[in-house]
Structure formats: C-alpha cells, structure tokens
From TrEMBL, chain A:
This is Anti-sigma factor antagonist. Residues 3-109 form the STAS domain. GO terms for molecular function: anti-sigma factor antagonist activity. Keywords: Phosphoprotein. Belongs to the anti-sigma-factor antagonist family. InterPro entries: Anti-sigma_ant (IPR003658), STAS_dom (IPR002645), STAS_dom_sf (IPR036513). Pfam families: STAS. The lineage of its organism: Bacteria, Bacillati, Bacillota, Bacilli, Bacillales. Positive regulator of sigma-B activity. Non-phosphorylated RsbV binds to RsbW, preventing its association with sigma-B. When phosphorylated, releases RsbW, which is then free to complex with and inactivate sigma-B.
TrEMBL record, chain B:
The lineage of its organism: Bacteria, Bacillati, Bacillota, Bacilli, Bacillales. Gene3D superfamilies: KaiA/RbsU domain, PPM-type phosphatase domain. SMART domains: PP2C_SIG. Residues 123-334 form the PPM-type phosphatase domain. PROSITE patterns: PPM_2 (PS51746). It comes from the Bacteria. This is Phosphoserine phosphatase. InterPro entries: Bact_Sigma-Reg, KaiA/RbsU_helical_domain_sf, PPM-type-like_dom_sf, PPM-type_phosphatase-like_dom, PSer_Pase_RsbU_N. SUPFAM superfamilies: KaiA/RbsU domain, PP2C-like. GO terms for molecular function: phosphatase activity. Keywords: Hydrolase.
UniProtKB/TrEMBL annotation, chain C:
Keywords: Kinase, Serine/threonine-protein kinase, Transferase. This is Serine/threonine protein kinase. It holds the Pfam family HATPase_c. InterPro entries: HATPase_C_sf, HATPase_dom. Residues 33-126 form the Histidine kinase/HSP90-like ATPase domain. GO terms for molecular function: protein serine/threonine kinase activity.
Amino acid sequence: MNITIDVKETELQTKVRIAGEIDAYTAPKLRETVFPYTERETSNIVVDLSEVSYMDSTGLGVFVGLFKSLNANGGTLQLIGLSERLRRLFDITGLADIMNINSEVEGGV
Amino acid sequence: MEFREVMQEKYKEILESYMKDQNEQALYLSQKFSRKSIEHKISPEEIISLHKTALLDLGIEFSEAMLPSFDILLEVMMAYGLAYREHQNLRTIQQELKSEIEVAANMQQTLLGTQVPDVDCLDIGAISVPARQMSGDYYHFVQDEQGAVSVAIADVIGKGIPAALCMSMIKYSMDSLPEGQYEPSQVLESLNRVVEQNVDPTMFITMFYGMYNTVNHTFYYSSAGHEPGFFYDHKTKDFKELYAKGLLLGVSKKTKYRQFEKKVEVGDIILLMSDGVTECRTEEGFIEVDTLKGYIQKYIHLEAQEIADKVYKELEFLQGFQLRDDFTLIILKRIK
Amino acid sequence: MDSCVKITNEWDIVAARQLGRNVAKDLGFGTVDQARITTAISELARNIYLYAGQGQVCIEKTEAAGKVGLIIISEDQGPGIQDLRKAMEDGFSTSGGLGAGLPGVKRLVDEFTIDSTPGEGTLIRAIKWLR
C-alpha cells in the first residue's frame, strides 16, 4: 500500500503524476500534496493516473474535493491516463460528466 | 518481605546460579523473571539497579572501577522506562476507546435499523456486514400505503466512524422526507440538497433508490453514483446490469436524477449491492463480475435471504475472511 | 546552599541536574530515585531552555505529614502553554522527539502541579517523597 506523487509546475499547468494505490491510507497524503495548488488563482491541474493500480471511493473523494476547490478558484482539473477500471469508477459516479477525463489534450485548457 | 525484596532475592539466586556454570535453566528463569517484572510494572531502570545490587551482594569478583558504568546504563534506561510506562498508559486508553466504539457500533445498529417489508409478491433478503466496527453502508426499506416497496442502498466514502456519522444524517433526512414522496428521482434530488449543504466537500455518498410497484410489478429506480445492481431474468436465465447513471450525492446542488424502470416477471430477481461486493479483492486481484454472477447463479433457486447469506459466505472465504470494505447485498425476488 | 539554577543555556541543564543529584543524595534517595529526580529536572530545565529561553529551576528539601521529600520548582516567563490538557497528554510531546515531556515528568515524581498562562509563563512544582 504505497503511493508516489510527483508534482511538476510549468507556466501553463501543474502536472501531477501519481503511481501506486489510492485508498483510505494514501488518500490523505494525496490531498495534502495537491490541495495547496488548487487554492491559487486559475491554476490548471493535470493529473496523470496511468500508474495508479487501485483507487477506492476515498480516492474519488479527494478528486471531488480538488475539483470543487478548483471550481471555486477559477481553475481547471484534467485527469488523464485512466485505466478501464478507473474510467468505470468515474462513469458510474457521474463524475465523468462533469470532469475533464482522458481527453489527452496536453498543455492546459 | 516486601515484594521488591523478594524480586531482589530471586534475581540474586538466578544470577548466582548462572555465574557458576552458565546453565540454560538460569536463562529460562530469567525469562520468567522478566515476564513477572513486566506484570508488576517494574521498569527497566529498576532492573539495572537490581543487577548492580545483586552483583555487590554476591561479592562477585570484578573490578571496582566498573561500578560507575552502571550509572550510565541506568541513566540511558530511564528514557526506555518512561516510554514503557507511557506505552502501558496508552494501552489502557486504547482499550477504553475500543469499548467506546463498540457502544457506538451497537447504537448505530439500533439507529439505522430497518425492517424488511412483508409483501405477498416479493421474497426479500438483505445482508450488511461492516469491514470494521462501524459501517458506512446503509440500506433502508419503506412500505407505503399503496403497497409499494421502496429500497435505498447507500455507501458513504471512507469507512469507520466518520462514515457512520454521515450515514446517521442521511437516515434522518430520509425519515423527514415529505409523506408520499417516494419517486426515486425526487428522493435523490432532495437528499442531494441536504448532503450538499451539510457535509464536508470531500465527503460524498452514493445511493441507489428503487421503488417496486406491487400493482403493476414495475421497478422504478435512480442512482446517485452507486454501483449498478443486477437484474436476473428468470426466462433467459441471464443477468443484466441495472444500468442507471447519476452524479454522487453532495457534489453539485442542482443535480437532476434520471429515473429508469424495469418490468418484473414472476421469478425475476433484483440484486442491489455496495461496492464492497463488486470491488471484492483477493490476493490475485479483483474478482471478476462473472465470478460474482456465478455465485449468485449457484444459489438462485434458494430463498432471497439464503442467496444473500450464501453469496456473502463465498466472498468472505475468497477474501480470506478479511473484508476490505463494508459489504451489503439486497435481493428482491418476485414470487407471484 | 544556593538552591536555584538559572537556565539560559544547555550547560545550565547539567548544573541543575548536579544540584538535584546532590540534594537527592543528601536526603538519602536510592540510585534509581536519584536518576528519576535528575531526569525530571533535566526535562523541566530543557523545556525552559527550548521554549522559554530563560528561567530557573530550584531544588529544596520539603516536609509534610512526617514525610521528607524533594521539591523541584521550575519557573519561566516564556510564552506559556496554550493547551495544557494536550501538553499533559501521552504521545503528544514524545511523538515530536521532544523527550519524555510533561507526562513523563509527572510519572517520575509523586506530586505534580502546573500553572501556565499564555504570554506570561509557566510554573511547575514537582515533589518526590522519600520512601
């Protein structure tokens, strides 16, 4: 049960690469690492989930929190590299309809 | 003799015996001695003092110059002694917490209790097992005057106490819904507003709400991000997903929920579940949906409650009796 | 006998310990209790040095109801403790690697009282009775 989070900032966007599992144990770390970036004005966050092997509802909770915070501060959230399993999770929960998922448009929105 | 003097004597005996011929027996006695000292809360620094005193009493030959070294040892052991006592105290606190949580878990059971409705045309079974002491899963039945049976199944993100507290709130909002409002889409829309206003932004709830009309035998349902259920077609012996899509409760205030419907024939079965069922994980990975369907198929001829219990037993076994997530399974079988 | 040590730097902690050990020895405390008393003094002096910057630790003989004991009085005009209840909680100070902390000191002695006002300072009295 481990996670590595790698944040790279460029002028246009903040790119977050996550590898490992996102569950009740690792979710707090993810939230703490990424949340500060959502509170800046108009920040564009791109999260690469291609190396995430597992995510449960606690993980979804983190993304809902990030999404809400970004919306409140005029920023955007983009999720890329979702496996089929993750994709299904975002589909069932209706989040795929309100979030920018797997559109693979690099370089911010 | 005072207890400490007894211990001092005992220690001296063990030491004397061992100094003579290094026998294993003495080492075994030392082990027993240490267990006894822990039992009587004798801390590490006291053991050092015992050792020093015993050495002096026995008049064992050693360089006097060595003696002050024990002061260093004793000083170093002080912190261990403190840590040891702190540990004992924390253990007591942990036990208190544990029993407090047990009380809360029982209370939750009472608070969230629901009665399985008794209707002629339906055979209903339900099972809900928490992964930890308190559950974040919830199910609820309501039977209205026209005989319609409504069923809600919900899952709060996370597990344990925060999830349980949140669930209690949902239960009370459901109880206070306007009389006669059992249209699934409306129910979800009302609850969504409650959750959106009252819950932490990172907390959300998935819910499947269904209403079985016992007159026209149609099942009306809506989902707020909940794991889709299954529909078992008695004629074709086939499972279909009870597809319904909708946003999680508590994400956006203005969410509208689409309502779906499904005609139910005699022998057809509706299966509703939490993600603890479909996301069931074993050593080798997630179980496949087909595996799950297989288990259901295996027991499909039984009574609803038995199907639920048996499927749970299978999955429990598959996971090595360690649930990673709360588990809830509800089965509605039309029998006439 | 000068029974107080001013604490302004780390070496004063050693001086306070030395004073405590001398008084404890004179009163007839055994080696284990001597070590407990000096550890308690160490912790209190260290707290002054780390958090208040300066203050003093006094060590005296005390008598009550036919018992003889040693009293440690630690006093500073530092920032005080915001949440005493939390500071006295196990696992709070130790988790940050700050040593035994106040609960540890409390355990080492027989009587312990603390009075702290944020912005004004802290006064701690700890007594160890001779058995």
